[in-house]
Amino acid sequence: MTRFLPDEAATTAFGRQLLDAIPGDLAGWTLLLTGELGAGKSTLARAFIKAAGHTGAVPSPTYTLVEPYSLPRGNIYHVDLYRVSSEDELRYLGWNELDDGCRIVEWPDRAPGLVAQADLAIHLAYEGEGRRVELTPLSERAGKLAAALDAVGGSCNL
Ligand SMILES: Nc1ncnc2c1ncn2[C@@H]1O[C@H](COP(=O)(O)OP(=O)(O)OP(=O)(O)O)[C@@H](O)[C@H]1O
Ligand SMILES: [Mg+2]
Question: Residue 12 CA: which ligand 1 atom is closest?
Answer without folding.
Answer: 8
